[in-house]
């Protein structure tokens, strides 16, 4: 029988202390954070812990602490400066604006692996109009935004500018495309694209929030969803 670390062992063997089984320990929380940051910044980590890239990510990781929140927990509110950076380990966050009457417009959903921070200068002041709330129970890595930006700027102005520009462009592209679809596609067509492009969000996000994101009233969303159910069983 072939053995080796490249092969998986049946779960029932794990309690037998078989000497041929290699027990690989899961990465610690801090190392998992460093790995997540490396993906955010597009840095390939080498095995050398003294490399400049590894030292940079290690320094950055020290700014973060882990936080667990329940569903519909308010993380950032309008009319107050946005103060934190969030790296999502588990869960979904909702970025939205809310009118004085309580009506909301959902702008974006963030999921596992995403980093969320105050992209727009206005959102870092008391004139902030954006809110950030958990859609599901979430496990987050949280850091002070000012300290986070300062650490990146110390690496050279190009590091912060490159990081900030990448996310700003991504959000701008998604926003403009969603607006284009609102103007040129029917609600049914937009719902079908939602099913195709974001199947996990459809499973995990409440319908009323998805309706707001699509730009339709909940009753219309529910009617389209019910009509299409037989086609997507």
TrEMBL record:
Coiled coil region boundaries: none
Protein known as: Cyclic nucleotide-binding protein
Gene3D superfamilies membership: Jelly Rolls
InterPro entries: cNMP-bd_dom, cNMP-bd_dom_sf, RmlC-like_jellyroll
Organism: Marinobacter lipolyticus SM19
